[in-house]
Specification:
By secondary structure, the chain is an alpha+beta fold. It contains 4 helices and 8 strands. It has an 8-stranded mixed β-sheet.
Length: about 190
């Protein structure tokens, strides 16, 4: 259900931005020797420039829940393909086993993206057992390397509603003085 909601969100966003969005599109993978599915793609079409072909692949998005498929997800995003199928932007959203896996995955992305030269947003979700909380870490890469990283937290309240905030906004992780000052200003 989360996968469908995330893909639908990005499909709607792409259409609002003027792209043709396709769920379960495909592109040729030279190493595999066959087409591989893309969870979502955004294609740019402009009849003023070419009435028959898309101008470029603006986005390739992959979403994965299974930990053991984390490398395969990256392989899909950065596969060797035909020039017309090299995306300007890629997004990978995946659940991973632990925080420790991120360095390995990001190094793989850095190597593959040094060839592909896309803008890449990688979003990792994992359980932090030390703090009993779900974490979401997002890493933004340009063709020249890692540019920015942000961490967020997800937690269910007593009524089973989920909330999410950036790590620096989560009161239990702030110093007691900051929390006291916040309460005084409210």
């Amino acid at each position: 259900m989360f996968t469908k909601r995330e893909i639908d969100y990005f499909a709607n966003l792409g259409e609002l931005l003027g792209f043709d969005a396709f769920v379960e599109d495909s592109k040729f993978d030279r190493i595999k020797g066959r087409s591989r599915p893309m969870d979502l793609s955004w294609w740019k079409w402009d009849a003023r420039k070419d009435k028959e072909n898309y101008l470029y692949l603006a986005l390739h998005l992959e979403r994965e829940n299974v930990w053991s498929k984390d490398v395969d997800t990256i392989e899909k995003l950065f596969s060797k393909t035909e020039e017309a199928f090299i995306p300007h932007n890629v997004i990978g959203i995946q659940n991973i086993e632990s925080f420790e896996r991120i360095d390995f995955l990001n190094e793989l992305i850095y190597k593959k993206n040094s060839i592909q030269k896309s803008n890449a947003l990688m979003i990792y979700r994992y359980y932090d057992s030390d703090n009993d909380i779900e974490r979401v870490d997002a890493y933004y890469f340009t063709p020249s390397g890692l540019m920015e990283c942000r961490q967020a937290l997800c937690k269910q309240d007593q009524s089973d509603y989920w909330f999410m905030c950036f790590e620096e906004e989560f009161a239990p992780f702030q110093g007691k003085e900051k929390v006291a000052n916040t309460i005084k200003t409210i």
